[in-house]
């Protein structure tokens, strides 16, 4: 976590992702990663894989094997990438469509494909246009990164001087719509916020990553006041923890920073819980299926025990239910998660139970 975004990608991310050309390596890493996320209580995830179609299918296999709910995307990159980790435009589009078909053919209600241009700097106009067309053709979700870092924004401006903003580049190629989830969105202009609201696009707020590589602090309160859907992301490995509890805590801290900077009210603990649950469900368009315990929704849930052996949470006889929930969110960890359920099925139960 010692470099800003663009340098960090070049030094750490791209060399590591290039190794996922080895499908056995990819399968082993993905199996551990999915298990780790589920152990930490993530019932639904949006995954960025790598540019490798076979490796990305290995991620789908890992998700299906465990029973997690997920949107899985093959990353697309055809410019401004190292020679050892880049695709041609034609290969990227062909492999993406093949991957999309393979996931849809599973007819698994828990796993969906998601179109995944990494971000504008690594995708040519032809690739972005083609990916927008694929998303429309199959009526599927899109995920990408937007306005994470000021140097990134300047790079996009230099690559696309024909567009007045970063967001309008995505929009010009059909990538900004109601099924779009955009990571970060730290430095949006008021005009970009208006555009995102009009298109119905959502934000994945990733405060741990934003702090770690000094990208900035997103004003989530302002986004929500402007009717932008916002959910939380752990953004590993840009973020330091696979736990959504950590993401909530980081989001609470980020909201305090924006309070100190701009006077916007910081989030309460329960508002942080909303971002990690129903807020996230709304961001991916599944608010009618998951996100809370309203009758008729899928039973995606965690069973929490604040009194397990070696629990980091201490309770007192004066604690209310809200106190207990708040203590778990602020102090708890995977030791307190005794079962994880997706669609009514227990997909994780620690061996101690």
What is the tally of beta strands? 11
Shape label: globular
N to C succession of SSEs: HHEHEEHEHEHHEHEHHEHHHEHEE
- What's the overall average pLDDT, rounded? 97
Tell me the distance between the termini: 36 Å
Task: Provide the structure class.
Answer: alpha/beta
Rg: 20 Å
For the sheet with most strands, the description reads: 8 strands, parallel
Helicity, as a percent range: 40-55%
Unreliable segments of 5+ consecutive residues:
none
Query: What amount of the residues lies in strands?
Result: 5-15%
| Helix count, DSSP H or I runs of 4 or more residues | 14
Show the helix and strand layout.
Elements: H1 5-18, H2 23-39, E1 44-48, H3 53-66, E2 69-73, E3 75-76, H4 89-104, E4 111-117, H5 125-138, E5 141-146, H6 150-159, H7 166-172, E6 180-184, H8 190-199, E7 202-205, H9 207-212, H10 220-225, E8 229-232, H11 244-262, H12 269-276, H13 278-283, E9 301-304, H14 321-331, E10 337-342, E11 345-348
Parallel strand pairs: 1-2, 2-4, 3-4, 4-5, 5-6, 6-7, 7-8
Antiparallel strand pairs: 9-10, 10-11
What does this structure look like?
This protein is an alpha/beta fold and 353 residues long. It has 14 helices and 11 strands. Helix 3 runs parallel beside helix 4 (89-104). The chain is globular.
């Amino acid at each position: 976590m010692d470099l800003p975004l663009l340098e960090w990608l070049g030094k750490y991310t791209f060399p590591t992702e290039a190794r996922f050309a080895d499908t056995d390596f990819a399968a082993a890493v993905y199996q551990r990663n999915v298990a780790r996320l589920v152990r930490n209580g993530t019932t639904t995830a949006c995954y960025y894989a790598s540019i490798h179609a076979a490796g990305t299918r290995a991620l789908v296999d890992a998700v299906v094997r465990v029973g997690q709910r997920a949107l899985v995307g093959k990353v697309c990159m055809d410019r401004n990438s190292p020679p050892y980790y880049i695709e041609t435009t034609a290969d990227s589009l062909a492999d993406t469509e093949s991957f999309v078909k393979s996931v849809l053919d599973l007819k698994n209600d828990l796993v969906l494909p998601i179109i995944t241009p990494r971000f504008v700097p690594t995708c040519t106009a032809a690739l972005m246009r083609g990916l927008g067309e694929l998303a429309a053709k199959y009526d599927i979700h899109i995920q990408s990164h937007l306005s994470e870092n000021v140097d990134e924004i300047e790079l996009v401006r230099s690559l696309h001087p024909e567009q007045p903003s970063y967001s309008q580049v995505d929009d010009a190629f059909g990538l900004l719509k109601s099924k779009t989830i955009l990571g970060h969105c730290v430095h949006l202009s008021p005009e970009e916020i208006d555009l995102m609201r009009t298109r119905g696009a959502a934000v994945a707020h990733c405060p741990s990553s934003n702090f770690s590589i000094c990208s900035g602090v997103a004003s989530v309160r302002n986004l929500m006041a402007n009717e932008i859907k916002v959910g939380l992301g752990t953004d590993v490995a840009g973020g330091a923890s696979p736990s959504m509890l950590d993401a909530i805590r980081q989001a609470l801290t980020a909201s305090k920073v924006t309070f100190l900077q701009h006077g916007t009210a910081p989030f309460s603990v329960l508002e942080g819980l909303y971002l990690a649950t129903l807020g996230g469900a709304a961001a991916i368009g599944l608010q009618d299926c998951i996100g809370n315990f309203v009758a008729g929704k899928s039973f995606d849930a965690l069973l929490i025990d604040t009194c397990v052996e070696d629990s980091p949470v201490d309770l007192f006889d004066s604690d209310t239910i809200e106190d207990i929930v708040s203590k778990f969110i602020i102090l708890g960890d995977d030791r307190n998660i005794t079962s994880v359920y997706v669609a009514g099925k227990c997909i994780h139960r620690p061996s101690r139970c």
